[in-house]
């Protein structure tokens, strides 16, 4: 599992939504939606960043907030969506 120093998803969320916080303070199970760290506009920004960073077409990205509730949820989706297809 990634740590704060080499976890681009955690680093992005801290940089964009928790300015000034230490990346290690954001735990994998912290609820980003319930805590309002990521609001509806933030969710759009996060989806756009995921699409660009991991080369995942926006049409393939779920739009429901539950998919982005925690770092673990986001990482799980990205891991599946960005995995190379097997033949």
Protein architecture, described:
The chain contains three helices and no strands. The longest helix has 15 residues, at 40-54. By secondary structure, it is mainly α. The chain is globular and about 35 Å long. The protein has helices spanning 8-17, 40-54, 71-81. It starts with 7 loop residues before the first helix and ends in a 6-residue tail after the last helix. The mean pLDDT is 87. The chain has a domain at 27-82. InterPro entries: ACP-like_sf, PP-bd_ACP. This is Acyl carrier protein.
Task: Provide the gyration radius in Å.
Answer: 13 Å
Low-confidence stretches: none
Record field, number of beta strands: 0
Q: DSSP helix count?
A: 3
State the secondary-structure class: mainly alpha
Q: Termini distance? A: 27 Å
Largest sheet properties: none
Q: What pattern of helices and strands is seen along the backbone?
A: HHH
Q: Roughly what percent helix?
A: 40-55%
User: Given the C-alpha coordinates, what overall shape results?
Assistant: globular
Proportion of residues in extended strands: under 5%
Mean pLDDT level: 87
Organism: Streptomyces coelicoflavus
Protein name: Acyl carrier protein
Domain Carrier: 4-82
InterPro entries: ACP-like_sf, PP-bd_ACP
